[in-house]
Design a protein that fits this description.
heterodimer, A: 217 residues, flat, B: 261 residues, alpha/beta, 6-stranded mixed β-sheet, 4-stranded antiparallel β-sheet, 9 helices, 25% strand, globular
Protein backbone atom coordinates (compact mmCIF):
# COMPACT_ATOMS: atom_id res chain seq x y z
CA UNK A 1 0.00 0.00 0.00
CA UNK A 2 2.79 2.36 0.88
CA UNK A 3 4.49 1.48 -2.40
CA UNK A 4 1.28 2.15 -4.33
CA UNK A 5 0.96 5.59 -2.77
CA UNK A 6 4.61 6.32 -3.46
CA UNK A 7 4.25 5.30 -7.12
CA UNK A 8 1.03 7.30 -7.47
CA UNK A 9 2.67 10.43 -6.11
CA UNK A 10 5.67 10.07 -8.39
CA UNK A 11 3.48 9.43 -11.39
CA UNK A 12 1.43 12.51 -10.51
CA UNK A 13 4.60 14.58 -10.61
CA UNK A 14 5.39 13.06 -14.01
CA UNK A 15 1.86 13.74 -15.14
CA UNK A 16 2.22 17.38 -14.13
CA UNK A 17 5.07 17.64 -16.65
CA UNK A 18 2.92 15.93 -19.29
CA UNK A 19 0.07 18.30 -18.56
CA UNK A 20 2.36 21.31 -18.78
CA UNK A 21 3.58 20.31 -22.25
CA UNK A 22 -0.03 19.66 -23.28
CA UNK A 23 -1.27 23.01 -22.02
CA UNK A 24 1.60 25.10 -23.42
CA UNK A 25 1.19 23.42 -26.81
CA UNK A 26 -2.53 24.24 -26.85
CA UNK A 27 -2.09 27.83 -25.69
CA UNK A 28 0.36 28.63 -28.50
CA UNK A 29 -0.82 26.41 -31.34
CA UNK A 30 -4.55 27.23 -31.20
CA UNK A 31 -4.04 30.89 -32.23
CA UNK A 32 -0.96 30.16 -34.34
CA UNK A 33 -2.94 27.53 -36.26
CA UNK A 34 -5.50 30.19 -37.18
CA UNK A 35 -2.75 32.41 -38.60
CA UNK A 36 -1.33 29.46 -40.55
CA UNK A 37 -4.80 28.69 -41.92
CA UNK A 38 -5.18 32.30 -43.11
CA UNK A 39 -1.81 31.88 -44.84
CA UNK A 40 -2.89 28.69 -46.59
CA UNK A 41 -6.02 30.46 -47.83
CA UNK A 42 -4.23 33.68 -48.82
CA UNK A 43 -5.14 35.09 -52.21
CA UNK A 44 -1.46 36.04 -52.60
CA UNK A 45 0.00 33.06 -54.46
CA UNK A 46 3.57 32.93 -52.99
CA UNK A 47 2.32 33.09 -49.40
CA UNK A 48 -0.31 30.44 -50.04
CA UNK A 49 2.19 28.02 -51.55
CA UNK A 50 4.96 28.59 -49.04
CA UNK A 51 2.54 27.95 -46.20
CA UNK A 52 1.06 24.89 -47.89
CA UNK A 53 4.49 23.38 -48.53
CA UNK A 54 5.44 24.00 -44.91
CA UNK A 55 2.22 22.36 -43.67
CA UNK A 56 2.87 19.42 -45.99
CA UNK A 57 6.41 18.96 -44.61
CA UNK A 58 5.27 19.10 -41.01
CA UNK A 59 2.33 16.77 -41.52
CA UNK A 60 4.37 14.52 -43.76
CA UNK A 61 7.19 13.75 -41.30
CA UNK A 62 7.11 12.12 -37.86
CA UNK A 63 6.80 14.40 -34.84
CA UNK A 64 9.60 12.35 -33.27
CA UNK A 65 11.93 13.43 -36.07
CA UNK A 66 10.83 17.05 -35.69
CA UNK A 67 11.73 16.90 -31.99
CA UNK A 68 15.28 15.91 -32.93
CA UNK A 69 15.51 18.59 -35.58
CA UNK A 70 14.38 21.36 -33.23
CA UNK A 71 16.62 20.16 -30.40
CA UNK A 72 19.81 19.47 -32.35
CA UNK A 73 19.26 21.35 -35.62
CA UNK A 74 20.08 24.94 -34.61
CA UNK A 75 23.26 23.84 -32.84
CA UNK A 76 24.51 21.81 -35.79
CA UNK A 77 23.59 24.41 -38.41
CA UNK A 78 24.47 27.67 -36.68
CA UNK A 79 26.19 26.64 -33.48
CA UNK A 80 23.54 28.39 -31.39
CA UNK A 81 22.20 26.99 -28.16
CA UNK A 82 18.79 28.61 -28.56
CA UNK A 83 16.84 25.39 -27.90
CA UNK A 84 19.37 23.69 -25.67
CA UNK A 85 16.71 23.57 -22.95
CA UNK A 86 14.93 20.29 -23.57
CA UNK A 87 11.54 21.47 -22.36
CA UNK A 88 11.65 24.57 -24.57
CA UNK A 89 12.68 22.51 -27.58
CA UNK A 90 9.81 20.09 -26.96
CA UNK A 91 7.24 22.88 -26.67
CA UNK A 92 8.53 24.53 -29.87
CA UNK A 93 8.37 21.28 -31.84
CA UNK A 94 4.89 20.46 -30.54
CA UNK A 95 3.59 23.96 -31.24
CA UNK A 96 4.87 23.90 -34.84
CA UNK A 97 3.48 20.43 -35.43
CA UNK A 98 0.06 21.06 -33.90
CA UNK A 99 -0.35 24.51 -35.48
CA UNK A 100 -0.17 22.82 -38.86
CA UNK A 101 -2.74 20.17 -37.97
CA UNK A 102 -5.05 22.74 -36.39
CA UNK A 103 -4.67 25.05 -39.39
CA UNK A 104 -6.14 22.41 -41.67
CA UNK A 105 -9.08 21.92 -39.31
CA UNK A 106 -9.66 25.69 -39.23
CA UNK A 107 -9.41 25.85 -43.02
CA UNK A 108 -12.02 23.13 -43.51
CA UNK A 109 -14.26 24.91 -41.02
CA UNK A 110 -13.92 28.32 -42.64
CA UNK A 111 -14.29 27.04 -46.20
CA UNK A 112 -17.31 25.03 -45.10
CA UNK A 113 -19.34 28.16 -44.37
CA UNK A 114 -21.57 28.75 -47.40
CA UNK A 115 -20.61 31.70 -49.61
CA UNK A 116 -24.14 33.01 -49.25
CA UNK A 117 -23.50 33.85 -45.60
CA UNK A 118 -20.71 36.25 -46.60
CA UNK A 119 -22.79 37.71 -49.40
CA UNK A 120 -25.77 38.25 -47.12
CA UNK A 121 -23.52 40.12 -44.71
CA UNK A 122 -22.03 42.27 -47.47
CA UNK A 123 -25.41 43.12 -48.94
CA UNK A 124 -26.58 44.20 -45.49
CA UNK A 125 -23.68 46.67 -45.36
CA UNK A 126 -21.46 44.81 -42.91
CA UNK A 127 -17.68 45.12 -43.03
CA UNK A 128 -15.45 42.08 -43.45
CA UNK A 129 -14.40 41.99 -39.77
CA UNK A 130 -18.04 42.34 -38.71
CA UNK A 131 -19.01 39.44 -40.96
CA UNK A 132 -16.23 37.28 -39.52
CA UNK A 133 -17.05 38.11 -35.92
CA UNK A 134 -20.86 38.17 -36.01
CA UNK A 135 -21.63 35.58 -38.68
CA UNK A 136 -18.79 33.25 -39.67
CA UNK A 137 -16.98 32.62 -36.38
CA UNK A 138 -19.60 30.70 -34.42
CA UNK A 139 -20.50 28.62 -37.48
CA UNK A 140 -16.82 27.70 -37.84
CA UNK A 141 -16.55 26.82 -34.14
CA UNK A 142 -19.57 24.53 -34.39
CA UNK A 143 -18.13 22.77 -37.41
CA UNK A 144 -14.68 22.19 -35.95
CA UNK A 145 -15.48 21.01 -32.43
CA UNK A 146 -15.59 17.28 -33.34
CA UNK A 147 -12.33 17.20 -35.35
CA UNK A 148 -10.66 19.44 -32.75
CA UNK A 149 -11.67 17.06 -29.96
CA UNK A 150 -10.00 14.26 -31.89
CA UNK A 151 -6.80 16.20 -32.44
CA UNK A 152 -6.55 17.39 -28.85
CA UNK A 153 -7.01 13.84 -27.53
CA UNK A 154 -4.17 12.77 -29.82
CA UNK A 155 -2.04 15.55 -28.37
CA UNK A 156 -2.56 14.19 -24.83
CA UNK A 157 -0.92 10.94 -25.85
CA UNK A 158 1.63 12.45 -28.25
CA UNK A 159 3.24 14.31 -25.34
CA UNK A 160 4.91 11.00 -24.42
CA UNK A 161 7.07 11.42 -27.55
CA UNK A 162 9.02 14.20 -25.85
CA UNK A 163 10.91 11.49 -23.93
CA UNK A 164 12.97 11.00 -27.09
CA UNK A 165 14.92 14.17 -26.22
CA UNK A 166 14.87 13.22 -22.54
CA UNK A 167 12.04 15.46 -21.40
CA UNK A 168 10.60 14.03 -18.20
CA UNK A 169 6.98 12.95 -18.42
CA UNK A 170 4.74 10.39 -16.75
CA UNK A 171 5.98 7.41 -18.79
CA UNK A 172 9.56 8.50 -18.17
CA UNK A 173 8.88 8.30 -14.43
CA UNK A 174 7.03 4.98 -14.72
CA UNK A 175 9.83 3.42 -16.73
CA UNK A 176 12.37 4.24 -14.05
CA UNK A 177 10.66 1.72 -11.77
CA UNK A 178 11.65 -1.05 -14.17
CA UNK A 179 15.35 -0.34 -13.84
CA UNK A 180 15.40 0.83 -10.23
CA UNK A 181 12.97 -1.62 -8.59
CA UNK A 182 12.20 -4.21 -11.29
CA UNK A 183 8.54 -3.16 -11.24
CA UNK A 184 6.57 -3.22 -14.52
CA UNK A 185 3.10 -2.38 -13.17
CA UNK A 186 3.76 1.38 -12.69
CA UNK A 187 4.16 1.61 -16.46
CA UNK A 188 0.75 0.06 -17.03
CA UNK A 189 -0.67 2.11 -14.20
CA UNK A 190 0.43 5.32 -15.99
CA UNK A 191 -2.14 4.49 -18.68
CA UNK A 192 -4.88 5.13 -16.12
CA UNK A 193 -3.79 8.77 -15.87
CA UNK A 194 -4.07 9.25 -19.63
CA UNK A 195 -7.45 7.52 -19.61
CA UNK A 196 -8.86 9.69 -16.84
CA UNK A 197 -7.55 12.88 -18.43
CA UNK A 198 -9.00 12.00 -21.83
CA UNK A 199 -12.26 11.11 -20.09
CA UNK A 200 -12.46 14.59 -18.60
CA UNK A 201 -11.69 16.16 -22.01
CA UNK A 202 -14.40 14.04 -23.65
CA UNK A 203 -16.98 15.24 -21.14
CA UNK A 204 -15.92 18.88 -21.61
CA UNK A 205 -16.10 18.76 -25.40
CA UNK A 206 -19.42 16.91 -25.30
CA UNK A 207 -20.78 19.73 -23.18
CA UNK A 208 -19.49 22.28 -25.70
CA UNK A 209 -21.13 20.38 -28.56
CA UNK A 210 -24.40 20.34 -26.66
CA UNK A 211 -24.12 24.08 -26.01
CA UNK A 212 -23.82 24.72 -29.75
CA UNK A 213 -26.79 22.56 -30.61
CA UNK A 214 -29.24 25.48 -30.45
CA UNK A 215 -28.63 26.19 -34.13
CA UNK A 216 -27.83 24.04 -37.11
CA UNK A 217 -25.46 24.81 -39.98
CA UNK B 1 -37.10 61.21 -62.44
CA UNK B 2 -36.04 57.56 -62.38
CA UNK B 3 -34.69 56.16 -59.13
CA UNK B 4 -32.38 53.77 -60.97
CA UNK B 5 -30.51 54.22 -64.20
CA UNK B 6 -28.34 51.44 -65.63
CA UNK B 7 -26.23 52.33 -68.64
CA UNK B 8 -24.43 49.95 -71.00
CA UNK B 9 -23.60 47.32 -68.40
CA UNK B 10 -21.25 44.58 -69.62
CA UNK B 11 -19.84 41.59 -67.81
CA UNK B 12 -17.68 38.63 -68.89
CA UNK B 13 -16.83 35.45 -67.02
CA UNK B 14 -13.72 34.26 -68.86
CA UNK B 15 -14.76 34.03 -72.49
CA UNK B 16 -18.46 33.95 -71.74
CA UNK B 17 -20.40 37.16 -72.24
CA UNK B 18 -22.93 37.21 -69.43
CA UNK B 19 -24.22 40.77 -69.75
CA UNK B 20 -24.01 42.46 -73.11
CA UNK B 21 -24.80 46.15 -73.05
CA UNK B 22 -27.70 46.28 -70.60
CA UNK B 23 -29.45 49.63 -70.18
CA UNK B 24 -32.70 50.39 -68.43
CA UNK B 25 -34.34 52.81 -66.01
CA UNK B 26 -36.70 52.23 -63.14
CA UNK B 27 -39.23 54.71 -61.75
CA UNK B 28 -39.70 55.15 -58.03
CA UNK B 29 -42.44 52.93 -56.65
CA UNK B 30 -42.61 50.64 -59.65
CA UNK B 31 -42.01 46.94 -59.91
CA UNK B 32 -39.81 45.44 -62.60
CA UNK B 33 -39.84 41.70 -63.27
CA UNK B 34 -37.00 40.12 -65.18
CA UNK B 35 -37.81 36.84 -66.92
CA UNK B 36 -35.73 34.61 -69.13
CA UNK B 37 -34.13 31.17 -69.31
CA UNK B 38 -31.42 30.02 -66.91
CA UNK B 39 -28.07 31.48 -67.91
CA UNK B 40 -29.58 34.52 -69.58
CA UNK B 41 -27.80 36.87 -67.16
CA UNK B 42 -30.72 37.85 -64.89
CA UNK B 43 -29.04 36.88 -61.66
CA UNK B 44 -25.70 38.40 -62.68
CA UNK B 45 -27.46 41.69 -63.35
CA UNK B 46 -28.90 41.70 -59.82
CA UNK B 47 -25.51 40.77 -58.39
CA UNK B 48 -23.89 43.69 -60.23
CA UNK B 49 -26.45 46.10 -58.79
CA UNK B 50 -25.69 44.78 -55.31
CA UNK B 51 -21.90 45.04 -55.78
CA UNK B 52 -21.43 41.28 -55.50
CA UNK B 53 -19.97 41.34 -59.02
CA UNK B 54 -18.06 44.15 -60.66
CA UNK B 55 -19.20 45.00 -64.19
CA UNK B 56 -16.49 45.25 -66.89
CA UNK B 57 -18.02 48.40 -68.29
CA UNK B 58 -21.04 50.63 -67.90
CA UNK B 59 -22.44 52.70 -65.08
CA UNK B 60 -25.13 52.64 -62.39
CA UNK B 61 -26.95 55.71 -61.06
CA UNK B 62 -29.35 55.84 -58.13
CA UNK B 63 -31.29 59.08 -57.57
CA UNK B 64 -28.87 60.72 -60.03
CA UNK B 65 -25.91 59.80 -57.83
CA UNK B 66 -23.21 57.93 -59.73
CA UNK B 67 -22.71 54.71 -57.74
CA UNK B 68 -20.58 52.89 -60.24
CA UNK B 69 -18.74 53.73 -63.42
CA UNK B 70 -16.31 51.23 -64.88
CA UNK B 71 -14.28 54.10 -66.39
CA UNK B 72 -14.10 56.06 -63.14
CA UNK B 73 -11.91 54.33 -60.56
CA UNK B 74 -12.98 56.78 -57.88
CA UNK B 75 -16.42 55.14 -57.87
CA UNK B 76 -14.96 51.73 -57.09
CA UNK B 77 -13.34 52.32 -53.72
CA UNK B 78 -13.78 49.36 -51.41
CA UNK B 79 -14.38 51.75 -48.51
CA UNK B 80 -17.40 53.37 -50.17
CA UNK B 81 -18.95 50.16 -51.41
CA UNK B 82 -20.50 49.56 -48.04
CA UNK B 83 -22.52 52.77 -48.09
CA UNK B 84 -23.46 52.38 -51.75
CA UNK B 85 -24.83 48.88 -51.43
CA UNK B 86 -27.32 50.15 -48.88
CA UNK B 87 -29.28 51.72 -51.74
CA UNK B 88 -30.15 48.16 -52.68
CA UNK B 89 -31.57 45.25 -50.76
CA UNK B 90 -31.27 41.68 -51.95
CA UNK B 91 -33.38 38.65 -51.15
CA UNK B 92 -31.55 35.47 -52.11
CA UNK B 93 -32.88 32.32 -53.67
CA UNK B 94 -31.44 30.31 -50.75
CA UNK B 95 -32.56 32.79 -48.02
CA UNK B 96 -29.11 32.94 -46.37
CA UNK B 97 -30.43 33.68 -42.92
CA UNK B 98 -27.79 33.62 -40.19
CA UNK B 99 -28.32 30.24 -38.49
CA UNK B 100 -26.89 31.16 -35.08
CA UNK B 101 -29.15 34.19 -34.63
CA UNK B 102 -32.85 34.07 -33.90
CA UNK B 103 -35.39 35.68 -36.21
CA UNK B 104 -35.38 39.01 -34.41
CA UNK B 105 -31.58 39.22 -34.34
CA UNK B 106 -31.37 38.31 -38.03
CA UNK B 107 -33.31 41.48 -38.73
CA UNK B 108 -31.71 43.81 -36.19
CA UNK B 109 -28.04 42.75 -36.48
CA UNK B 110 -27.09 44.79 -39.55
CA UNK B 111 -29.06 47.82 -38.30
CA UNK B 112 -27.34 47.70 -34.94
CA UNK B 113 -23.90 47.48 -36.53
CA UNK B 114 -24.67 50.41 -38.81
CA UNK B 115 -26.04 52.46 -35.93
CA UNK B 116 -22.66 52.24 -34.24
CA UNK B 117 -21.33 54.58 -36.93
CA UNK B 118 -23.82 57.29 -35.99
CA UNK B 119 -22.27 60.22 -34.14
CA UNK B 120 -24.88 60.24 -31.39
CA UNK B 121 -24.78 56.47 -30.84
CA UNK B 122 -23.11 56.65 -27.44
CA UNK B 123 -25.47 59.23 -25.96
CA UNK B 124 -28.68 57.83 -27.41
CA UNK B 125 -27.81 54.15 -27.49
CA UNK B 126 -30.97 53.07 -25.67
CA UNK B 127 -33.35 55.01 -27.91
CA UNK B 128 -31.59 53.92 -31.11
CA UNK B 129 -31.67 50.24 -30.18
CA UNK B 130 -35.30 50.50 -29.05
CA UNK B 131 -36.18 52.09 -32.38
CA UNK B 132 -34.44 49.27 -34.30
CA UNK B 133 -36.22 46.69 -32.19
CA UNK B 134 -39.59 48.34 -32.74
CA UNK B 135 -39.10 48.45 -36.49
CA UNK B 136 -38.11 44.76 -36.54
CA UNK B 137 -41.32 43.88 -34.68
CA UNK B 138 -43.38 45.89 -37.17
CA UNK B 139 -41.67 44.25 -40.14
CA UNK B 140 -42.19 40.75 -38.77
CA UNK B 141 -45.78 41.62 -38.15
CA UNK B 142 -46.16 42.74 -41.75
CA UNK B 143 -44.81 39.42 -43.06
CA UNK B 144 -47.04 37.52 -40.64
CA UNK B 145 -44.34 36.11 -38.38
CA UNK B 146 -44.75 38.00 -35.13
CA UNK B 147 -45.10 34.68 -33.30
CA UNK B 148 -41.64 33.52 -34.46
CA UNK B 149 -39.48 36.30 -32.99
CA UNK B 150 -37.28 33.96 -30.99
CA UNK B 151 -37.23 30.96 -33.30
CA UNK B 152 -34.02 29.98 -35.03
CA UNK B 153 -33.91 29.65 -38.83
CA UNK B 154 -33.70 25.83 -38.78
CA UNK B 155 -37.00 25.73 -36.91
CA UNK B 156 -38.80 27.53 -39.74
CA UNK B 157 -40.18 26.31 -43.04
CA UNK B 158 -38.61 27.57 -46.25
CA UNK B 159 -41.46 29.97 -46.83
CA UNK B 160 -41.13 31.40 -43.33
CA UNK B 161 -37.36 31.73 -43.74
CA UNK B 162 -37.82 33.65 -46.96
CA UNK B 163 -40.34 35.97 -45.33
CA UNK B 164 -37.80 36.68 -42.57
CA UNK B 165 -35.21 37.37 -45.27
CA UNK B 166 -37.56 39.90 -46.88
CA UNK B 167 -38.10 41.63 -43.53
CA UNK B 168 -34.33 41.63 -42.99
CA UNK B 169 -33.74 43.34 -46.34
CA UNK B 170 -36.47 45.90 -45.66
CA UNK B 171 -35.09 46.79 -42.25
CA UNK B 172 -32.32 48.85 -43.85
CA UNK B 173 -34.85 50.84 -45.92
CA UNK B 174 -33.25 50.25 -49.32
CA UNK B 175 -34.29 52.44 -52.26
CA UNK B 176 -34.62 49.37 -54.43
CA UNK B 177 -35.37 45.88 -53.21
CA UNK B 178 -34.09 43.04 -55.42
CA UNK B 179 -35.37 39.48 -55.42
CA UNK B 180 -33.29 36.71 -56.94
CA UNK B 181 -35.72 33.90 -57.76
CA UNK B 182 -37.24 34.16 -54.29
CA UNK B 183 -39.45 31.09 -54.61
CA UNK B 184 -37.22 28.75 -56.64
CA UNK B 185 -35.92 26.90 -53.57
CA UNK B 186 -39.39 26.45 -52.09
CA UNK B 187 -41.85 23.58 -52.23
CA UNK B 188 -44.78 24.53 -54.44
CA UNK B 189 -47.20 24.75 -51.53
CA UNK B 190 -44.94 27.34 -49.85
CA UNK B 191 -44.46 29.74 -52.75
CA UNK B 192 -47.88 31.34 -52.24
CA UNK B 193 -47.09 32.83 -48.83
CA UNK B 194 -43.91 34.46 -50.14
CA UNK B 195 -45.54 35.79 -53.31
CA UNK B 196 -48.32 37.25 -51.20
CA UNK B 197 -45.79 39.23 -49.16
CA UNK B 198 -44.07 40.53 -52.31
CA UNK B 199 -47.42 41.48 -53.74
CA UNK B 200 -48.34 43.46 -50.66
CA UNK B 201 -45.03 45.31 -50.99
CA UNK B 202 -45.88 46.18 -54.58
CA UNK B 203 -49.22 47.53 -53.43
CA UNK B 204 -47.41 49.79 -50.98
CA UNK B 205 -45.28 51.16 -53.85
CA UNK B 206 -41.99 49.58 -52.88
CA UNK B 207 -39.49 49.91 -55.71
CA UNK B 208 -38.58 46.36 -56.66
CA UNK B 209 -36.68 44.28 -59.19
CA UNK B 210 -37.81 40.67 -59.23
CA UNK B 211 -36.00 37.92 -61.09
CA UNK B 212 -38.52 35.13 -61.32
CA UNK B 213 -39.79 32.07 -63.12
CA UNK B 214 -43.32 32.60 -61.81
CA UNK B 215 -44.87 34.03 -64.99
CA UNK B 216 -48.40 34.36 -63.66
CA UNK B 217 -47.07 36.23 -60.65
CA UNK B 218 -44.84 38.50 -62.76
CA UNK B 219 -47.84 39.38 -64.86
CA UNK B 220 -49.98 40.30 -61.87
CA UNK B 221 -47.47 42.23 -59.85
CA UNK B 222 -45.21 44.09 -62.32
CA UNK B 223 -45.41 47.50 -63.87
CA UNK B 224 -42.72 46.54 -66.35
CA UNK B 225 -41.59 43.12 -67.54
CA UNK B 226 -38.16 42.63 -69.03
CA UNK B 227 -37.23 39.55 -71.05
CA UNK B 228 -33.54 38.68 -71.13
CA UNK B 229 -31.79 36.16 -73.33
CA UNK B 230 -28.05 35.58 -73.80
CA UNK B 231 -27.09 38.61 -71.78
CA UNK B 232 -29.19 41.15 -73.62
CA UNK B 233 -32.56 42.76 -72.96
CA UNK B 234 -34.63 41.37 -75.80
CA UNK B 235 -37.79 43.19 -74.94
CA UNK B 236 -39.42 45.19 -72.19
CA UNK B 237 -42.80 46.71 -71.65
CA UNK B 238 -46.03 46.42 -69.74
CA UNK B 239 -46.98 42.91 -68.63
CA UNK B 240 -49.84 42.86 -71.14
CA UNK B 241 -47.64 43.73 -74.09
CA UNK B 242 -44.82 41.30 -73.19
CA UNK B 243 -47.01 38.37 -72.22
CA UNK B 244 -49.92 38.81 -74.68
CA UNK B 245 -48.37 40.50 -77.68
CA UNK B 246 -44.58 40.18 -77.64
CA UNK B 247 -42.78 42.01 -80.45
CA UNK B 248 -39.84 39.67 -80.60
CA UNK B 249 -39.76 36.14 -81.91
CA UNK B 250 -37.40 35.08 -79.08
CA UNK B 251 -39.84 36.26 -76.40
CA UNK B 252 -42.67 34.42 -78.09
CA UNK B 253 -40.68 31.19 -78.26
CA UNK B 254 -39.66 31.44 -74.60
CA UNK B 255 -43.21 32.05 -73.43
CA UNK B 256 -44.58 29.26 -75.61
CA UNK B 257 -42.05 26.83 -74.20
CA UNK B 258 -42.85 28.03 -70.73
CA UNK B 259 -46.60 27.75 -70.90
CA UNK B 260 -46.50 24.41 -72.68
CA UNK B 261 -44.01 23.10 -70.13
Amino acid sequence: MELFLDVTLHLLVGFAATFKLFLLTLIFSLPLGLIVSFGSMSSFFPVRWLVRIFVWMIRGTPLMLQLFVVFYGPGILWGTTIFSNREVAAVVAFVINYSCYFSEIYRSGIEGVPKGQNEAGHVLGMTKPQIFYHITLLQVVKRIVPPMTNEIMTLVKDTSLARIIAVVDIIFVAQRYITSSALIWPLFYSGVFYLLFCGVLTILFRALERKLRFFSV
Amino acid sequence: MPVLEVKNLKKHFGDTKVLDDISFTLEKGSTLSIIGASGSGKTTLLRCLNFLETPDSGSIYVNNEKLFDADDKSTQKESEKRKKRLHFGLVFQSFNLFPQHNVLKNITLACELLAKDQKDYKQNKKEILAEIDKRAHELLDSVGLSDKLFSYPHQLSGGQQQRVAIARALALRPDILCFDEPTSALDPELTGEVLKVIKSLAERDTTMIIVTHEMQFAREVSDIVMFMDDGIVVEQGSPESVFCAPDEERTRRFLERYFEG
